[in-house]
Model the fold of this input.
Amino acid sequence: MSGASSRLLSGLLRLCGRPGGMDKAVVRAVPSEAKLSISLTLSGSQRQLQRDQTEALGRALARISASATKTKKRKEPPAPGPPVRLFYRGQPVNEAATNAEAWQDGAELLVGNLLYRVERNPPMCHELDLPRHVMAGFPVCPRLRLEFADAEHSLFTWYKQQPQAAEEAGDSPGSPGRQQWVEACHERVFTPAVGDIGLRLKLRCTPGDGQRLGESRELEVDGPVEAGAGACTFDERHLYTQRLTEEPVIRTVSYNLLADVYAQTEHARTVLFPYCAPYALELEYRHCLIRKELSGYRADLLCLQEVDRTVFSDSLAPALEAFGLDGLFRLKDKQHEGLSTFYRRSRFRLCSQHDILLGEALTADPLHQEMLQRLSCYPAAKEKMLQRSSALQVSVFESTTDPSRKICVANTHLYFHPKGGNIRLLQIAVALSHVRHVAYELYPGIPVIFCGDFNSTPSTGMYSFVRDGTISENHEDWTSNGEEEQCNMSLGHPLKLKSACGEPAYTNYVGGFHGCLDYIFIDSDSLDVEQVIPMPSHEEVTSHQALPSVSHPSDHIALICDLRWK
Done:
C-alpha cells in the first residue's frame, strides 16, 4: 500500500469509529452459483452488481468505480470514476485474485473517500409472512425464508398495540393510524390471549447464524386479533399430551387433515358438508385450528394424509418446525395433495426414504412380479388398480440417543370408493410387500409403525389381511364392485401387526357416514402400547351435527397413542 493510501485508510477508519460507523457492502457468494452479488449505496442510491466469481477483482472494482458516477442524463459524458480499493486486515487485496477469494467478511472497500465494511454472506431474512387472521388462544407462527441463518439462532420480538395509547390518540384499538407498541413475546411462536382481542400484532425478526445477526425485518398482521373458536374437540385430548415423551416411549399420531382442494369446492359446501359454516371450511380458519391441535399433541411421529402441496410448504412445515418437528412430503400421482410424515428432531434422525406410488410399483418393481402376473388374469381389476394415484410414504429413522434403535414408519391413504374393497386389498398387498422389504431386508429386524387412512372398517378384508397376515381367494371383498371387476387370489404377508388404538366406533364422521377408517398398525413383537389418548366424546363430535365444524378442522379424527420399545 502507498503511504498516501495507508494514511487515508487509517484516517477514515478512525473517523468511522470502526466498524459501527461505516456503510456496508453486502456480498452474497454461494459456491454452487456462478455469480456473486455486491450491494452497496453509491451516489445516494442502492446498487447491486452481479459479477462472475472467477473474474479478477480488478475488473469488479473498475465496475464499482463506473457505477459511482452514473448519471440519469444520458447525453452527458460519463465522469471519471473515483479510485476504488479493497483492503483486508489493513492490507490491499491483490487485484488479480478472483472475486470468490477477494471479498472476505470484514474487509474494507474504499470508494473515493467513502469507506464500506464488507459483510460476506450475512444472515438474511428474505421472506417474513404472517397469516391474515389470528385468533385468541391459537398459536401464530411466521413463515420464514432465511439464508445464511437459522431460526434457532434468530431473534423474534412480538409487539402488540398498546390499547391505552391508541385510545389517547383517538384511535380504536384496531385502527392502523397512530399506534404505540409494547413488547409481548420473544419466542418464534406467539399465542394471543383473550385480552388481546381487538389489538394489532407486529413481529420483528432478526436473522442469526449463532455468531452474527443480520438486518431485522418487521411485519404487521393485517387485522386485529379475533375471538377464538371457543371449545374445540381436541382441547380435552391436550390434557393427556401436556408433556413431551422420553425414551423409550414414542408418541405417534395419524390424521387425515381434509385437503383444501376438496374442502373449497361448491360440492363440498352444498353436498358433502352442508351443515358446516362456510367460514369454517376456509383454509385460514381450518389451519388456525390445525396448528393448535397438532402442536398440542407434542408428537414424536406424525403421519398426515390429504396434505395440500402448498399447505405443506407454506403453513404446516414452517409451523411444526417451530415446534421441533421436521417434515417429509410425498405427492400423489397427478394430484395436488399427498402424504407427510413429521418427526421430532430431538428424538429421531432420518436415515432413508423409500416412497412409492402403489400402481407404478406393481408394474415396475420386480418385488411384485408374481402378484402382477396373477393380476393379469383379471384385466378390469388390473386397469382399475393401475389408474389409482395412491402413494406409500416409507421413512426409516434412528434414535438420536441410541442409533442402534431404528424404526420403519409407513404412511398411506388407500382408494376411497365404497365399492373399492378389491382395489384396497391389492393396494395394501403391494404396500405390505414394500414395507417388508424395507424392514426385513434393507434394515433387518427393525420394528414397523404403519399409519394411514385405509378407507376400510374393521369388518373388511383389508383390515383382517393386515391383522391376520392372510386373505383367502374367496373373501367377499374380491367381488366388492361386481363380477366384472373381481380378482380372486389368496395373499399373505409375514408382518405381525396390530391396531394400536383398537377399533374406535368411528374416526370419520360426516353427514351421511360414520365409521372407523384410520389406524396405527404396529409391530406387536417390538412395540407395546403405553396409552391411547381418548377420542373426543360423541357430544363434542356432534355438537355442530357432524365434521368438519367450527370446533374441528377435518372430517376425520386424529388417532394418538404412546408406544414403548420392548
Remarks:
- The radius of gyration is 30 Å.
- The CA atoms of residues 295 and 323 lie 7 Å apart.
- The longest strand covers residues 391-399.
